[in-house]
Amino acid sequence: MQDIIIDEEIKRILPALDETAYNNLEMSILAYGCLMPLVLWNGILIDGYHRFGILTKHDLPFNTISLEFGSRDEVIDWIIELQISRRNLTPMQLSYYRGYRYNLEKRIGGNRSGVNQYSEVGGQNVTQPKSQPTARKLAEQYNVSSRTIKRDAQLANAINKIGETSPETKMDILSGKTRISRKLLKELTGDSQADIKEIVTQISDGAFESKRPGAGTADDGNINHITDADTMQPWEENFAKMTDEFRQILRIHAKTDDTASIQSALRQYIDMLEDLYRDISGDG
Fold first, then answer.
1. What are φ and ψ of residue 125, in 5° steps?
2. Is 115 exposed, middle or buried (0-12, 13-18, 19+ CB in 10 A)?
3. HEC per residue, the chain
4. Are 186 and 154 in contact (CB under 8 A)?
5. Sign of CA dihedral 197, 199, 201, 204
6. Residue 267's pLDDT is what?
7. What is the pLDDT of residue 6?
8. By the 8 A CB rule, do 129 and 115 touch?
9. Contact 246/265 with Cβ under 8 angstroms?
10. Are 152 and 95 within 8 A, CB to CB?
């Protein structure tokens, strides 16, 4: 095993694998070996943390490649873009990564180095770095509106502030283990770190108040709550997942004037609700 630097900040950026996905990855590596090389930057592992853990556990060989970047922000930007392109992300994870990337790109701005962030060290094909994506360009890339990208940026800021106090709570929110409304996350953006710390403590203790001062009531459609997935009924989890997926589908169709596609998406959602209703009532 060669010396590889494990960076905890970078590791926490990556989405966690559930038990089934992890076991499938482990079985694949044991059967066929590690088909993809681990990716390094200045000796730091930037892609392949799950694979590296499995390889280390079973003392298996692996290959690495090294990429050059001009800054740590450019490394994280590359990691996020890679995760979005390859992972089956939840709507919350996807929003978080889009917003995180937008915030990074704003900070990087025109200060990118002349190093091609996608070139292999020692490689011959060196191109100019990409220009800074604006909200509009990112919106086009991810097939959402510019307003959505900016809302995602607020969400990412709030989740990262939570992560500064409790990386575990941040991972629970992104994985869906702890459910928190986007509206509430937006409200948390303006809170001080001391307030965030208090809220994280309440979440950990199971004593978080679902209502914040000035928040809407359930009657006006603004449901601001956090629910531990372990205490949810199966139908609640199914409904939450179903609704999140439908919002993503509808948001895509809403950008077009294809009424038939929108009607089809709505009909699919109605059918799923009817199936859920029958499951709960026992009429199935």
1. -90, 95
2. middle
3. CCCCECCHHHHHHCCCCCHHHHHHHHHHHHHHCCCCCEEEECCEEEECHHHHHHHHHHCCCCCEEEECCCCHHHHHHHHHHHHHHHCCCCHHHHHHHHHHHHHHHHHHCCCCCCCCCCCECCCCCCCCCCCCCCHHHHHHHHCCCHHHHHHHHHHHHHHHHHHHHCHHHHHHHHHCCEEECHHHHHHHCCCCHHHHHHHHHHHHHCCCCCCCCCCCCHHHCCCCCEEEHHHCCHHHHHHHHHHHHHHHHHHHHHCCCCHHHHHHHHHHHHHHHHHHHHHHHCCC
4. yes
5. negative
6. 75
7. 94
8. yes
9. yes
10. yes
| Calpha distance 133→142 (Å, rounded) | 12
| Mean pLDDT in order along the chain per 10 residues (284 residues) | 83 85 92 92 94 95 93 92 82 91 82 47 42 76 89 92 88 82 79 80 68 42 40 60 66 61 73 72 54
187 CB-side CA count, 13 A? 17
Tell me what pLDDT residue 216 has. 43
| pLDDT computed for residue 215 by the predictor | 44
